[in-house]
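Sat 14:20. Reprocessing the chain from the morning session after the first attempt stalled halfway. Input below, unchanged.
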Amino acid sequence: MSVWDDLVGQAPVVEQLSSAAAGTGGGMAHAWLFTGPPGSGRVTAARAFAAALQCTETPRGCGHCASCHQVLQGTHADVEVVRPQGLSFGIKDARALVLRASSSPSGSGWQIVLFEDADRATEGAANALLKAIEEPPPRTVWLLCTPSAEDLLVTIRSRCRQVTLQTPPIAAVADMLVLRDGVDRGTAEIVARAAQGHISRARLLATDPQMRRVRDGVVAIPRRLTGVSPAVAAAEVLVKAAEAERDAQTVELNETETSALRKALGESEKGRMPRGTAGALKELEGRQKSRATRVMRDALDRTLLDLASYYRDVLTLQLGAGADLVNIELAPELRTAASAGRPEDTLRRLDAIMECRERVAANVNPQLAFEALTLALRTG
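Finished this time. C-alpha coordinates:
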Protein backbone atom coordinates (compact mmCIF):
# COMPACT_ATOMS: atom_id res chain seq x y z
CA MET A 1 0.00 0.00 0.00
CA SER A 2 1.57 3.31 -1.09
CA VAL A 3 0.84 6.85 -0.01
CA TRP A 4 -0.95 7.44 -3.32
CA ASP A 5 -3.70 4.85 -2.78
CA ASP A 6 -6.20 7.32 -1.33
CA LEU A 7 -6.07 9.56 -4.43
CA VAL A 8 -9.16 8.09 -6.07
CA GLY A 9 -9.47 8.81 -9.79
CA GLN A 10 -6.44 11.14 -9.83
CA ALA A 11 -3.95 9.21 -11.99
CA PRO A 12 -2.44 12.35 -13.69
CA VAL A 13 -1.86 13.97 -10.30
CA VAL A 14 -0.21 10.84 -8.91
CA GLU A 15 2.12 10.72 -11.91
CA GLN A 16 3.00 14.41 -11.55
CA LEU A 17 3.74 14.21 -7.83
CA SER A 18 5.55 10.87 -7.82
CA SER A 19 7.83 12.10 -10.62
CA ALA A 20 8.64 15.27 -8.68
CA ALA A 21 9.33 13.32 -5.48
CA ALA A 22 11.68 11.05 -7.44
CA GLY A 23 13.49 14.07 -8.89
CA THR A 24 12.25 13.55 -12.44
CA GLY A 25 9.60 15.28 -14.54
CA GLY A 26 10.93 18.80 -14.09
CA GLY A 27 12.42 18.36 -10.64
CA MET A 28 11.32 19.94 -7.39
CA ALA A 29 9.69 23.31 -6.77
CA HIS A 30 9.84 25.17 -3.48
CA ALA A 31 6.10 25.99 -3.47
CA TRP A 32 3.11 23.95 -4.63
CA LEU A 33 -0.54 24.90 -4.93
CA PHE A 34 -3.10 22.10 -4.67
CA THR A 35 -6.51 23.09 -6.02
CA GLY A 36 -9.75 21.26 -6.60
CA PRO A 37 -13.42 21.25 -5.60
CA PRO A 38 -14.44 20.14 -2.08
CA GLY A 39 -13.94 16.42 -1.66
CA SER A 40 -11.53 16.04 -4.56
CA GLY A 41 -8.71 15.18 -2.16
CA ARG A 42 -6.42 18.20 -2.43
CA VAL A 43 -5.27 17.89 1.21
CA THR A 44 -4.88 14.12 0.79
CA ALA A 45 -2.72 14.74 -2.26
CA ALA A 46 -0.57 17.29 -0.43
CA ARG A 47 -0.11 14.93 2.52
CA ALA A 48 0.83 12.05 0.22
CA PHE A 49 3.35 14.28 -1.55
CA ALA A 50 4.84 15.33 1.80
CA ALA A 51 5.20 11.67 2.75
CA ALA A 52 6.84 10.85 -0.59
CA LEU A 53 9.32 13.71 -0.13
CA GLN A 54 10.31 12.41 3.31
CA CYS A 55 10.23 8.73 2.29
CA THR A 56 13.44 6.79 2.81
CA GLU A 57 12.63 3.96 0.39
CA THR A 58 12.58 3.51 -3.39
CA PRO A 59 10.25 4.24 -5.06
CA ARG A 60 9.34 7.30 -3.00
CA GLY A 61 6.03 7.12 -1.20
CA CYS A 62 6.19 3.47 -0.14
CA GLY A 63 3.66 4.00 2.64
CA HIS A 64 5.29 1.59 5.10
CA CYS A 65 8.61 3.18 6.16
CA ALA A 66 8.84 5.14 9.40
CA SER A 67 8.93 8.52 7.62
CA CYS A 68 5.83 7.81 5.52
CA HIS A 69 3.97 6.56 8.58
CA GLN A 70 4.90 9.63 10.64
CA VAL A 71 3.81 12.07 7.92
CA LEU A 72 0.50 10.31 7.37
CA GLN A 73 -0.12 10.23 11.13
CA GLY A 74 0.82 13.91 11.53
CA THR A 75 3.78 13.28 13.82
CA HIS A 76 6.78 13.94 11.55
CA ALA A 77 9.11 16.54 13.07
CA ASP A 78 9.83 18.20 9.71
CA VAL A 79 6.24 18.46 8.45
CA GLU A 80 4.26 21.38 9.85
CA VAL A 81 0.54 20.98 9.18
CA VAL A 82 -1.46 24.20 9.41
CA ARG A 83 -5.21 23.70 9.78
CA PRO A 84 -7.04 26.99 10.45
CA GLN A 85 -9.67 26.37 13.11
CA GLY A 86 -11.54 29.65 12.78
CA LEU A 87 -12.98 31.75 10.01
CA SER A 88 -9.61 33.24 9.08
CA PHE A 89 -5.85 32.91 9.51
CA GLY A 90 -4.38 36.17 10.76
CA ILE A 91 -1.09 37.99 10.36
CA LYS A 92 0.12 37.03 13.86
CA ASP A 93 -0.26 33.34 13.04
CA ALA A 94 1.33 33.87 9.62
CA ARG A 95 4.45 35.47 11.09
CA ALA A 96 4.83 32.62 13.58
CA LEU A 97 4.45 30.13 10.72
CA VAL A 98 7.12 31.87 8.63
CA LEU A 99 9.50 31.69 11.58
CA ARG A 100 8.92 27.94 11.98
CA ALA A 101 9.30 27.35 8.25
CA SER A 102 12.72 29.01 8.25
CA SER A 103 14.27 26.35 10.47
CA SER A 104 16.43 23.61 8.97
CA PRO A 105 15.05 20.06 8.78
CA SER A 106 16.14 17.79 11.61
CA GLY A 107 17.00 15.02 9.15
CA SER A 108 18.30 14.84 5.61
CA GLY A 109 14.92 15.50 4.02
CA TRP A 110 12.83 18.63 3.68
CA GLN A 111 11.24 21.16 6.03
CA ILE A 112 7.63 21.03 4.76
CA VAL A 113 4.74 23.37 5.52
CA LEU A 114 1.37 21.89 4.56
CA PHE A 115 -1.19 24.70 4.75
CA GLU A 116 -4.77 23.43 4.55
CA ASP A 117 -7.44 26.00 3.61
CA ALA A 118 -4.82 28.58 2.66
CA ASP A 119 -7.65 30.68 1.23
CA ARG A 120 -8.60 31.56 4.82
CA ALA A 121 -5.46 33.68 5.17
CA THR A 122 -6.29 37.36 5.55
CA GLU A 123 -4.71 39.88 3.19
CA GLY A 124 -2.15 40.79 5.82
CA ALA A 125 -1.34 37.15 6.50
CA ALA A 126 -1.00 36.43 2.79
CA ASN A 127 1.44 39.29 2.39
CA ALA A 128 3.45 37.97 5.34
CA LEU A 129 3.62 34.54 3.69
CA LEU A 130 4.54 35.95 0.30
CA LYS A 131 8.16 36.85 1.13
CA ALA A 132 8.78 33.43 2.68
CA ILE A 133 7.40 31.74 -0.43
CA GLU A 134 9.40 34.04 -2.71
CA GLU A 135 12.71 33.40 -0.92
CA PRO A 136 12.44 30.17 1.08
CA PRO A 137 15.43 28.43 2.69
CA PRO A 138 16.96 25.84 0.34
CA ARG A 139 15.37 22.82 2.09
CA THR A 140 11.90 24.30 2.75
CA VAL A 141 8.83 23.35 0.70
CA TRP A 142 5.42 25.02 0.93
CA LEU A 143 2.28 23.01 0.09
CA LEU A 144 -0.79 25.27 -0.11
CA CYS A 145 -4.33 23.91 -0.50
CA THR A 146 -7.28 25.95 -1.79
CA PRO A 147 -10.46 25.23 -3.77
CA SER A 148 -9.32 27.54 -6.57
CA ALA A 149 -6.09 29.29 -7.54
CA GLU A 150 -8.02 32.57 -7.64
CA ASP A 151 -8.51 32.27 -3.86
CA LEU A 152 -4.90 33.37 -3.33
CA LEU A 153 -3.00 36.52 -4.17
CA VAL A 154 -1.76 36.43 -7.75
CA THR A 155 1.76 37.09 -6.46
CA ILE A 156 1.61 33.89 -4.38
CA ARG A 157 0.06 31.60 -6.97
CA SER A 158 2.49 32.80 -9.64
CA ARG A 159 5.32 31.42 -7.53
CA CYS A 160 3.76 28.00 -7.03
CA ARG A 161 3.65 24.92 -9.20
CA GLN A 162 -0.02 24.07 -9.54
CA VAL A 163 -1.58 20.65 -8.97
CA THR A 164 -5.19 20.50 -10.13
CA LEU A 165 -7.49 17.77 -8.86
CA GLN A 166 -10.88 16.87 -10.32
CA THR A 167 -13.99 15.52 -8.65
CA PRO A 168 -13.50 11.74 -8.80
CA PRO A 169 -16.02 9.61 -10.70
CA ILE A 170 -18.93 8.26 -8.64
CA ALA A 171 -18.04 4.69 -9.61
CA ALA A 172 -14.45 5.14 -8.39
CA VAL A 173 -15.64 6.45 -5.02
CA ALA A 174 -18.07 3.53 -4.66
CA ASP A 175 -15.31 1.04 -5.52
CA MET A 176 -13.06 2.59 -2.88
CA LEU A 177 -15.76 2.26 -0.21
CA VAL A 178 -16.29 -1.39 -1.08
CA LEU A 179 -12.64 -2.38 -1.33
CA ARG A 180 -11.09 -0.17 1.37
CA ASP A 181 -13.89 0.21 3.92
CA GLY A 182 -15.87 -3.00 3.44
CA VAL A 183 -19.12 -1.18 2.63
CA ASP A 184 -21.73 -3.24 0.79
CA ARG A 185 -22.09 -2.36 -2.90
CA GLY A 186 -25.66 -1.01 -2.66
CA THR A 187 -24.88 1.39 0.19
CA ALA A 188 -21.60 2.43 -1.43
CA GLU A 189 -23.29 3.45 -4.66
CA ILE A 190 -26.03 5.39 -2.88
CA VAL A 191 -23.69 7.37 -0.62
CA ALA A 192 -21.19 8.00 -3.44
CA ARG A 193 -23.99 9.61 -5.43
CA ALA A 194 -25.29 11.49 -2.40
CA ALA A 195 -21.80 12.87 -1.69
CA GLN A 196 -21.44 13.82 -5.39
CA GLY A 197 -17.87 12.57 -5.53
CA HIS A 198 -16.84 14.11 -2.18
CA ILE A 199 -14.62 11.30 -0.87
CA SER A 200 -14.56 12.07 2.85
CA ARG A 201 -18.29 12.87 2.89
CA ALA A 202 -19.04 9.58 1.12
CA ARG A 203 -16.96 7.66 3.65
CA LEU A 204 -18.70 9.45 6.54
CA LEU A 205 -22.15 8.72 5.13
CA ALA A 206 -21.19 5.09 4.57
CA THR A 207 -19.82 4.49 8.06
CA ASP A 208 -21.95 6.78 10.26
CA PRO A 209 -25.68 5.93 10.35
CA GLN A 210 -26.43 9.17 12.20
CA MET A 211 -24.99 11.25 9.36
CA ARG A 212 -27.13 9.32 6.88
CA ARG A 213 -30.21 10.02 8.99
CA VAL A 214 -29.35 13.73 9.08
CA ARG A 215 -29.01 13.87 5.30
CA ASP A 216 -32.19 11.85 4.81
CA GLY A 217 -33.95 14.42 6.97
CA VAL A 218 -32.65 17.27 4.81
CA VAL A 219 -33.78 15.80 1.48
CA ALA A 220 -37.17 15.02 3.07
CA ILE A 221 -37.75 18.73 3.73
CA PRO A 222 -39.12 19.67 0.26
CA ARG A 223 -42.15 17.41 0.59
CA ARG A 224 -43.04 19.12 3.91
CA LEU A 225 -43.04 22.69 2.55
CA THR A 226 -46.77 22.87 1.91
CA GLY A 227 -47.43 26.25 3.52
CA VAL A 228 -46.05 29.12 5.60
CA SER A 229 -46.22 27.38 8.98
CA PRO A 230 -44.52 24.14 7.83
CA ALA A 231 -41.86 26.21 6.04
CA VAL A 232 -40.98 28.17 9.20
CA ALA A 233 -40.91 24.96 11.24
CA ALA A 234 -38.64 23.30 8.67
CA ALA A 235 -36.19 26.20 8.88
CA GLU A 236 -35.99 25.79 12.63
CA VAL A 237 -35.34 22.06 12.29
CA LEU A 238 -32.48 22.62 9.82
CA VAL A 239 -30.79 25.31 11.91
CA LYS A 240 -31.10 23.31 15.14
CA ALA A 241 -29.53 20.29 13.43
CA ALA A 242 -26.55 22.45 12.45
CA GLU A 243 -26.31 23.82 15.98
CA ALA A 244 -26.30 20.29 17.38
CA GLU A 245 -23.46 19.34 15.04
CA ARG A 246 -21.55 22.45 16.07
CA ASP A 247 -21.96 21.71 19.78
CA ALA A 248 -20.99 18.07 19.33
CA GLN A 249 -17.70 19.15 17.75
CA THR A 250 -16.81 22.13 19.92
CA VAL A 251 -18.31 22.14 23.43
CA GLU A 252 -16.17 19.38 24.95
CA LEU A 253 -13.08 20.60 23.08
CA ASN A 254 -13.64 24.15 24.35
CA GLU A 255 -13.91 22.96 27.94
CA THR A 256 -10.72 20.91 27.64
CA GLU A 257 -8.78 23.82 26.11
CA THR A 258 -10.02 26.31 28.69
CA SER A 259 -9.24 24.00 31.60
CA ALA A 260 -5.74 23.31 30.29
CA LEU A 261 -4.99 27.01 29.79
CA ARG A 262 -6.29 28.01 33.23
CA LYS A 263 -4.03 25.40 34.83
CA ALA A 264 -1.06 26.52 32.74
CA LEU A 265 -1.66 30.13 33.81
CA GLY A 266 -1.63 29.20 37.49
CA GLU A 267 -5.26 28.76 38.54
CA SER A 268 -5.60 28.35 42.30
CA GLU A 269 -7.43 25.50 44.01
CA LYS A 270 -10.36 27.89 44.56
CA GLY A 271 -10.54 28.71 40.85
CA ARG A 272 -8.93 32.15 41.11
CA MET A 273 -6.67 33.33 38.30
CA PRO A 274 -3.45 35.37 38.73
CA ARG A 275 -3.44 38.97 37.58
CA GLY A 276 -2.63 39.57 33.94
CA THR A 277 -4.12 36.32 32.66
CA ALA A 278 -7.50 37.67 31.52
CA GLY A 279 -6.10 38.62 28.10
CA ALA A 280 -4.92 35.08 27.34
CA LEU A 281 -8.27 33.62 28.34
CA LYS A 282 -10.12 36.19 26.24
CA GLU A 283 -7.93 35.41 23.22
CA LEU A 284 -8.71 31.69 23.60
CA GLU A 285 -12.41 32.45 23.88
CA GLY A 286 -12.24 34.48 20.67
CA ARG A 287 -10.57 31.58 18.80
CA GLN A 288 -13.17 29.16 20.13
CA LYS A 289 -16.05 31.38 19.00
CA SER A 290 -14.50 31.70 15.55
CA ARG A 291 -14.09 27.92 15.32
CA ALA A 292 -17.70 27.34 16.40
CA THR A 293 -18.92 29.80 13.77
CA ARG A 294 -16.91 28.03 11.10
CA VAL A 295 -18.26 24.58 12.08
CA MET A 296 -21.80 25.98 12.08
CA ARG A 297 -21.39 27.55 8.65
CA ASP A 298 -19.90 24.37 7.23
CA ALA A 299 -22.85 22.36 8.56
CA LEU A 300 -25.37 24.82 7.12
CA ASP A 301 -23.58 24.80 3.78
CA ARG A 302 -23.72 21.00 3.58
CA THR A 303 -27.44 21.22 4.30
CA LEU A 304 -27.92 23.71 1.48
CA LEU A 305 -25.94 21.58 -0.97
CA ASP A 306 -28.03 18.53 -0.06
CA LEU A 307 -31.20 20.56 -0.68
CA ALA A 308 -29.77 21.75 -3.98
CA SER A 309 -29.15 18.14 -5.03
CA TYR A 310 -32.86 17.42 -4.60
CA TYR A 311 -33.94 20.26 -6.88
CA ARG A 312 -31.13 19.47 -9.29
CA ASP A 313 -32.64 16.01 -9.70
CA VAL A 314 -36.10 17.49 -10.21
CA LEU A 315 -34.77 19.83 -12.91
CA THR A 316 -32.90 16.95 -14.58
CA LEU A 317 -36.17 15.04 -14.92
CA GLN A 318 -38.11 18.09 -16.06
CA LEU A 319 -35.63 18.83 -18.83
CA GLY A 320 -35.16 15.19 -19.79
CA ALA A 321 -31.41 15.66 -19.52
CA GLY A 322 -30.74 11.96 -19.04
CA ALA A 323 -28.13 12.55 -16.33
CA ASP A 324 -27.94 10.18 -13.38
CA LEU A 325 -29.90 11.20 -10.29
CA VAL A 326 -28.02 12.10 -7.13
CA ASN A 327 -30.85 10.96 -4.86
CA ILE A 328 -31.67 7.84 -6.82
CA GLU A 329 -33.42 6.23 -3.85
CA LEU A 330 -36.04 9.03 -4.07
CA ALA A 331 -36.70 8.48 -7.79
CA PRO A 332 -40.51 8.01 -7.51
CA GLU A 333 -40.89 11.13 -5.37
CA LEU A 334 -38.65 13.14 -7.67
CA ARG A 335 -40.67 12.13 -10.73
CA THR A 336 -43.87 13.23 -8.98
CA ALA A 337 -42.32 16.59 -8.05
CA ALA A 338 -41.01 17.04 -11.60
CA SER A 339 -44.40 16.41 -13.18
CA ALA A 340 -46.16 18.72 -10.72
CA GLY A 341 -44.02 21.78 -11.44
CA ARG A 342 -42.24 23.76 -14.13
CA PRO A 343 -38.50 24.03 -14.81
CA GLU A 344 -38.73 27.78 -14.21
CA ASP A 345 -39.99 27.17 -10.66
CA THR A 346 -37.23 24.67 -9.96
CA LEU A 347 -34.59 27.12 -11.19
CA ARG A 348 -36.07 29.78 -8.93
CA ARG A 349 -35.75 27.43 -5.97
CA LEU A 350 -32.14 26.63 -6.83
CA ASP A 351 -31.41 30.36 -7.03
CA ALA A 352 -32.98 30.78 -3.58
CA ILE A 353 -30.64 28.11 -2.17
CA MET A 354 -27.58 29.81 -3.65
CA GLU A 355 -28.75 33.15 -2.26
CA CYS A 356 -29.10 31.58 1.17
CA ARG A 357 -25.52 30.31 0.94
CA GLU A 358 -24.35 33.86 0.25
CA ARG A 359 -26.35 35.20 3.18
CA VAL A 360 -24.93 32.66 5.60
CA ALA A 361 -21.39 33.43 4.39
CA ALA A 362 -22.11 37.12 4.93
CA ASN A 363 -23.00 36.42 8.59
CA VAL A 364 -26.76 36.88 8.26
CA ASN A 365 -28.65 35.31 11.19
CA PRO A 366 -29.04 31.63 10.16
CA GLN A 367 -32.62 31.36 11.38
CA LEU A 368 -33.71 34.38 9.34
CA ALA A 369 -31.75 33.21 6.26
CA PHE A 370 -33.29 29.74 6.39
CA GLU A 371 -36.81 31.01 7.02
CA ALA A 372 -36.51 33.16 3.90
CA LEU A 373 -35.27 30.10 2.03
CA THR A 374 -37.95 27.65 3.10
CA LEU A 375 -40.66 30.22 2.38
CA ALA A 376 -39.22 30.60 -1.13
CA LEU A 377 -39.16 26.80 -1.57
CA ARG A 378 -42.69 26.10 -0.39
CA THR A 379 -45.22 24.62 -2.78
CA GLY A 380 -48.36 25.85 -1.08
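DSSP finds 15 helices and five strands in the chain.
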